[in-house]
């Protein structure tokens, strides 16, 4: 029997796993996919919200600013990209100015520091390319941007280094209550555990409903995005929001931590938890609304579009805590925005519940540091010469758009919880994320993977399962 099974290897599951790896516990993380960060974590706004949006009487309001304040230490310890670029909320009508004041007051109650209402002239001085129709703006200097999948990979690798076991392609099909905990049944094995943490994202309702009479309902909300080339990345330096609506925080325009520009999302309630299709109408909607904030968006520099699904609960708030009729079963469900921003605080909250339940000893040899893959594109000429001297693989560029070397690809494969899919390499190194969107580097990446993992090229997948890249030789199809 293990101590804790964590279901879900997104940012919440991996954050919880890392936090409880501080203690003398046997922990297993299960995920139905082939890697970490394959669900909501991989496709969102990548924003660390300051914390003024949520009502103070909600878990969102309680945890957002707390989580935000932990990002500096986390990014330093775990070596993932994070930047406090600050954020604006724009008001376009004088009669809506009161909404900015309400957000400011709400944020101050939530513990957000240094909020300020800017006049039009102040806002345009700080962000010259904003629309001239701006009347005023709420400025939150503690807002930030992050790379969600690099963050999640960092959490997972550090948890692994501290003894947490990860099992991928492990779809949970049922959970049974037993005398001393739970029997978690996957398609391949049975694991008995004293406690279970439900961090299953869009499927957290199904996991909860296996053990509790208090049923949950998670409804996916689709958001579509457009990503612009790095040449457009300096149009704005801060994250630009619009006065929010009931469905969300509106269309944002933001630089990414990697130097691109991101626009989106819209908010569409859907039924299918796997529907990631984008639509012409949806993309036109986000671009038209984004022009309210920034008028001259360079449409010819859009390099890709995508959509993500938010795991919203019908309660409209995070659902975190031990289930009353299933002691030892702990939900971290309904974690939609600002879930990424709140992740560090959610992890501490869940860990405190586990500590109270299992009374574990603190691990004396806990490793709080993790070092990421060295990025050739960020090195000085001297550093590049030195690393190529040490490892000639760093002298071979595989992805020209993002200047990713073979040395980085090999590191991504050979690290703890190393990449086993093309998307796994992409998220660890950015190979394939540039202007050509993997059109140039995919054959070389597949060749390296086949060689290093000793696979037939036809076994290489994009994201696991049956997402095979190749189906046979050219002549086989004749």
How does this model look, in words?
- There is one protein chain.
- With 478 residues, the protein is an alpha+beta fold.
- It folds into three domains: 2-41 and 149-218 and 315-358, FAD/NAD(P)-binding domain, CATH 3.50.50.60; 84-145 and 220-310, D-Amino Acid Oxidase, subunit A, domain 2 (D-Amino Acid Oxidase, Chain A, domain 2), CATH 3.30.9.10; 376-471, Arc Repressor Mutant, subunit A (Orthogonal Bundle).
- Strands 1, 2, 9, 10, 11, 12, 19 and 20 form an eight-stranded mixed β-sheet that branches. Strands 13, 15, 16, 17 and 18 form a five-stranded antiparallel β-sheet that branches. Strands 6-7-5-14 form a four-stranded mixed β-sheet.
- The radius of gyration is 23 Å and the shape is globular.
- The protein contains 13 helices and 22 strands.
- The chain is 30% helix and 22% strand.
- The chain has helices spanning 11-20, 59-69, 71-78, 97-110, 120-126, 148-161, 204-209, 280-293, 339-358, 381-390, 406-414, 422-429, 442-453, and strands at 2-7, 27-30, 47-48, 82-83, 87-91, 116-119, 136-140, 144-146, 165-167, 172-178, 181-186, 190-198, 218-228, 239-242, 252-255, 261-264, 268-269, 302-313, 319-322, 329-333, 397-399, 404-405.
Write a brief caption for the model.
By secondary structure, the protein is α+β, with helices and mostly antiparallel strands.
What's the structural blueprint in terms of helices and strands?
Layout: E1 2-7, H1 11-20, E2 27-30, E3 47-48, H2 59-69, H3 71-78, E4 82-83, E5 87-91, H4 97-110, E6 116-119, H5 120-126, E7 136-140, E8 144-146, H6 148-161, E9 165-167, E10 172-178, E11 181-186, E12 190-198, H7 204-209, E13 218-228, E14 239-242, E15 252-255, E16 261-264, E17 268-269, H8 280-293, E18 302-313, E19 319-322, E20 329-333, H9 339-358, H10 381-390, E21 397-399, E22 404-405, H11 406-414, H12 422-429, H13 442-453
Parallel strand pairs: 1-2, 1-12, 2-9, 5-14, 12-20
Antiparallel strand pairs: 3-8, 4-8, 5-7, 6-7, 10-11, 11-12, 13-16, 13-17, 13-18, 15-16, 19-20, 21-22
Helix pairs in contact: 1-6, 1-9, 2-9, 11-12, 11-13
């Amino acid at each position: 029997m293990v101590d804790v099974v964590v279901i879900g290897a997104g940012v919440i599951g991996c954050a919880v796993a890392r936090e409880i790896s501080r203690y003398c516990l046997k922990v297993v993380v299960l995920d139905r996919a082939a890697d970490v960060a394959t669900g909501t974590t991989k496709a969102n706004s990548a924003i660390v919200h300051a914390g003024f949006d949520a009502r103070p009487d909600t878990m969102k309001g309680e945890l957002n600013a707390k989580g935000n304040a932990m990002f500096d230490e986390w990014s330093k310890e775990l070596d993932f990209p994070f930047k406090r670029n600050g954020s604006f909320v724009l008001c376009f009508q004088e009669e809506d100015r009161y909404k900015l004041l309400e957000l400011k007051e709400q944020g101050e109650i939530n513990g957000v520091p240094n909020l300020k209402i800017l006049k039009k002239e102040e806002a345009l001085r700080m962000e010259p390319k904003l629309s001239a129709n701006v009347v005023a703006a709420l400025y939150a200097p503690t807002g930030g941007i992050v790379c969600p999948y690099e963050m999640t990979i960092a959490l997972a690798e550090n948890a692994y280094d501290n003894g947490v076991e990860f099992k991928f392609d492990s779809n949970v099909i049922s959970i049974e209550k037993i005398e001393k905990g739970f029997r978690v049944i996957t398609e391949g094995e049975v694991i008995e555990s004293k406690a279970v943490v439900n961090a299953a994202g869009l499927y957290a309702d199904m996991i909860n409903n296996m053990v509790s009479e208090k049923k949950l309902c998670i409804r996916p909300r689709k958001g579509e995005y457009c990503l612009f080339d790095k040449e457009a990345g300096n149009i704005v330096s801060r994250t630009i929001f619009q006065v929010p609506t009931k469905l969300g925080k509106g269309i944002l325009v933001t630089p990414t931590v990697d130097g691109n520009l991101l626009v989106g999302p819209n908010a569409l309630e859907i039924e299918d938890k796997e529907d990631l299709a984008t639509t012409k109408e949806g993309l036109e909607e986000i671009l038209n609304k984004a022009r309210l904030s920034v008028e001259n968006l360079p449409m010819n520099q859009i390099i890709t579009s995508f959509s993500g699904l938010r795991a919203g609960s019908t309660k409209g708030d995070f659902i975190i805590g031990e289930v009353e009729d299933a002691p030892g079963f702990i939900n971290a469900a309904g974690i939609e925005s600002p879930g990424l921003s709140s992740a560090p605080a959610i992890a501490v909250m869940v860990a405190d519940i586990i500590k109270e339940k299992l009374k574990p000893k603190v691990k004396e040899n806990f490793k709080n540091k993790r070092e990421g893959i060295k990025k050739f594109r960020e090195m000085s000429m001297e550093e590049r010469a030195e690393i190529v001297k040490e490892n000639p693989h760093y002298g071979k560029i595989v992805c020209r758009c993002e200047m990713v070397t073979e040395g980085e690809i090999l590191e991504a494969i050979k690290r703890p919880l190393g990449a086993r899919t093309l998307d796994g390499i992409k998220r660890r190194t950015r190979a394939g994320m540039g202007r050509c969107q993997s059109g140039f580097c995919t054959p070389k990446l597949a060749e390296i993977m086949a060689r290093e993992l000793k696979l037939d090229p036809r076994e290489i997948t994009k994201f696991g399962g049956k997402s095979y890249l190749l189906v046979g030789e050219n002549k086989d199809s004749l």
